Amino acid sequence: MATPLLQVSDLHVSAGDKYIVDGVDLELQHGEALGLAGESGCGKTTTALALMKLLPGALSQTGTMTLNLKGSDEPINLERRTETGMRYVRWRHISLVFQGAMNALDPVQRAEVQFDEAIRLHSPKADSAEVNARTEELLSTVGLSKNVGRRYAHQLSGGQRQRVMIALALACNPSLVIADEPTTALDVVMQAQVLQLLERLRERLGLALILITHDLGVLAETCDRIAVMYAGRIVEIGPVDTVFANPQHPYTKRLLETMPSIGAKRGLADPIPGGPPDPGEPPPGCRFRPRCPYAQEICERDDPALREAGPAQAAACHFAPWDEWPEEGLSAAWKAGATG
Amino acid sequence: MTDALVAVRDLAVTFRVDRGTARAVDGVSFEWRKGEVLGVVGESGCGKSTLARAMLDIVKPAAGQILLDGSAQNGKASHAEISRRLQMIFQDPYQTLNPRMRVRAIVAEPLKVQGISKSEHPDRVRRALEDVGLDPERFSERYPHQLSGGQRQRVAIAAALVLEPDGLVCDEPVSMLDVSVQAQILRVLTDLQKQRELALLFITHDLSLAWTLCDRICVMYLGRIVEQGTATDVIERPQHPYTQALVTAVPVARAGGGGRRELLTGELPDATAIPSGCRFHPRWPRRFEPCDRVDPPLLAAGAPDQLAACLLHDPEYSPGA
Asked: pTM for the complete prediction?
């Protein structure tokens, strides 16, 4: 197998003695799209920020993160980079498209000024004609006309702002784009347009993509592989089609069942009781146990690690791989239910 | 018709804005039947929330009628009756609860407004909280900031239902909540709907949700209903090109996903400058003569109860006919 673009090993993010990200391992191939799914507080955004070393001061991270760029024999060890060293990596090699493009664009600058900054970061000697040409090229890549560059953030629609953010992320030809809930604030039509755009860009530019979202439908359409996070850990990872057709962690299975989906069975499935634990305060044993319909005694005692559960698929469940899911014998804790 | 809880006739709502007059709701007629789960779907800016606010007498219509049980509602006298019979919950449970009131006071507020005897309050508040799955002992004395998002939305539902209304309008009730909590709130709503024969009106841009929950669906585009019918007919066999485009745009959480497809281009036009003829024609690549001149009414299309506002279904104009 080719050297992966990104290798993350044993990533921890802590606030004091609480681990918000609690041991994440990931590999991402060149040009691959990986979806990071999970509910709020599961650590998916924190993981993305840790990859960019952009965590707020109160949080600290450990673990290794290695970037192997095409055409370079020298791997970049992100964890050893200083803040100055990271500036060389951010935007040039990895760029981030934030959730809520309204907040990420500078409200008092025209869009073109922000392109100017990003482009000059890559080629400091560019003259203004070159910068203008590149801005226009970037805007047209995301399907916007050049006059959008003259506008301020508040003069753009939600879909336009998100496109501007994506264009900015591409300014320095990065190898990896991390997109954090890029379509959450958008309508279905606009969402579909933005997702199609990301997919086309990925094909054309050979980008790798980490897409963070709670919307499993969005992942199914955009990604090659999916990693499901729960309470600071990856609890299931595998090819999108395999995981959707045959989930191996009870959390993934129940999430898929409770998602309304056109073409599936109409009507509501039984919801997952309760809510996720507070970040950094997982219950003992398996983190999903209090909400799991299949929990047994061992689940209270032992914290399961990711184990092989199918071809290229792994799940952090004591009973994976599941040959079949029991209908009866659901645990008492689950039946008692809880309120979210 | 007798089984209509609310009948809306030729409703129009306009707003004055800098650019002119925005026709947010522009001639809408439909019925919301007793005990029915009705979905109103469309992109943001299509007028679906304004429509709901007009039905609840929160905004004043410029034209048209809203009939509650067959009687027209105008003037101040009926406002109290509307709020007794119809209630509404909103998208953001973080903004709709008064942060300085305890849960029991929030839930009792509608009783107070309706002038119901104070001695009845504690019992009715307790029952309302139990109905939404919140233990009154644990939650009555809390403030909104001591609740999770799902718990807040449950409190909002309890406050909306404490007057035992006949209809509950839910404006994007779960779009701010996490997936697993969404399913819990939807379960609370549908259980109440069945137990009490409560009519639900779901306003959402989430077609999968509407398809899963609703008996019937109205699709709105730029202030108009462009298609209506049973949820199955509208989503599985859409008859209006706009509905077809919406359905295609929905990401599918299934192995294989949705694959490549033809997407709508452009964005929803401004409600101050509604296109001539059919308001959807500028975004439809297969428009034909006279889509830009003739404004189509809702026409019979597809299944027996299905209507679509598209000239494709008008034998006089349809190129296929």
From this structure: 0.86
